[in-house]
Structure formats: structure tokens, C-alpha cells
Write a structure and sequence with these properties.
Blueprint lengths: L7 E12 L2 E8 L2 H6 L7 E6 L3 E6 L10 E6 L3 H7 L6 E8 L5 H4 L3 E7 L7 H9 L7 E7 L8 H7 L4 E6 L9 E2 L16 E6 L2 H14 L6 E4 L15 E2 L2 E2 H4 L2 E3 H4 L3 H4 L1
Parallel strand pairs: 7-8, 7-11, 8-9, 9-10, 11-12
Antiparallel strand pairs: 1-2, 1-6, 2-5, 3-4, 3-6, 12-15, 13-14
Length: 274
Amino acid sequence: MKNPYIPKLAIIRRIKDETPNTRTFRLSFKDPDLQRNFKFSPGQFIELTVFNYGEAPFSISSSPLEREYLETTIRVAGTVTKALFSLKENDVIGIRGPFGNSWPMGKLKGEDVLIIAGGIGLAPLRPVIKQILSDRDSYGEVILLYGARTPKDLLYKEELKEWEKQIDVHLIVDVGDETWKGRTGVVTALFDEISVDPKSTYSLQCGPPIMMHFVTKKLVELGFSGDRIVFSLERLMKCGMGFCGHCMISGRYVCRDGPVFNYSQISNFLEVAL
């Protein structure tokens, strides 16, 4: 996009229910040339406008290699998301972006990758997984640790089964049900199922602040250096442009300076950020 501050019209091509309160929206710009030329990197986000209701930032959850559409996975929470959930396929919304920085994909080549997600925090990490799977031989061992409140709250259930064929997937839920045969507890409990070399592994994580706080403590205990512990703090954003100040932490704007940071960058205000 030549001017990312001007919303462009996009069409809702598909709506998929992921959980009782979360949906993945497949979108494409009305202008075919705009769609073909739209580029983003894993970890970036868009501003999505629901006309007459407002706009809000959401991470892009599709692969950057897919040029015919983009996807964003959204949990209903406030005015904009409630209005979005009332729309149907073929309805029109607005998109600005992409904004923000991205996951360090270049540094991951030839390295082991440990991906840790909680709840909807898997959405901004899905593009990373998709890009890795598209060029699987360029990466070492890839492990996904993913936790959710209940089995019904797990995102991308069908994809998780496909991912297991190429990467090591470990799942856990806070509370199981009659269908759940896996582990229950917090995501850090999954560390006892894996073995990683902190010197050759990059850790990428996104989820509730309390999850990232304890995950980071565990990674530090395991010997990970600060530059190999990488976060997305996109859940702290509001306007997405650094105007409202909602996401400012110790003089940094998550939306403008991030949303991706490594531990070395934010360790001095970790308790505030996480």
C-alpha cells in the first residue's frame, strides 16, 4: 500500500469458527492489484475498520506466501469485534497496514525453534509455523508448546493435526472434559516433555502476560540468552499508531516499536510489560 493510513476496502471471503468466541476471517481487497501487491512479514498487524463502529488492530494470522488473501483470527471482546462478528461473508470492511515489526525469520534459518503460545496467542505465531513448513529443511528441530483454557478453546484444531506431521506439537489445557486425553495444567508444565539446547534454539512466544512471565523465567533458568527469547506483545495495543498511549511501556510504544521484542530489549521493564 502506498499510504497505509488510508483504509482500503476489503471483502470478507470466509468466516470460520475456531472456538465459541473466536473466528478466523479470510479477507481480500476489492482492488485485485492491491491484493497482489500486499506484502507483510510474520508478526505484523493490520488496522481493521468496521464501518460505523470504528477500527482496531489485529495480527495477521495467514502465511505471507499466500497472495490471494490474508487472514486474521479474532476473539470477540469489545464494540468493534462484536460488530465484526455480526457481519457475513461478502460484507465489506476497511484495512490499513501492515504495521509494526516482525518475528526474526532470517535468524531462525538453520536453528532450532521453540514456539510457545497461550490461547489466541497462537494467531500471530501461525504465520511463523506456516512459513517454516513451506521450507521445512531450512530449519532444525521445531517444537510447539500450546495451551488453552479448555479443549474447545484450542485454535486451528485441524491444522494442529497436520502440523504434528512435520513439527513436534505438545498441547495442554487448564481444564479438560470427557473428550480430552491430553495433559491438564499450565503451559510451562510442557517443558518437562522436551529437551532443547538454548545455544542453538530461538524461543518465540505470545499469550497472556502471566503465561509469558513464567515462560520467560523458565527459559532464563534453562540458559537462553536475551536475544534468543522473543515475544509478541500485540495484545497490549489499542490504536495501533502510538496516538492513544495505551501501549506505552517505559517510553516505548508496543505498536510502533514492536509488537515483537526480545528479552534483552525489554528485560528492564519486564514486570510491567508481562
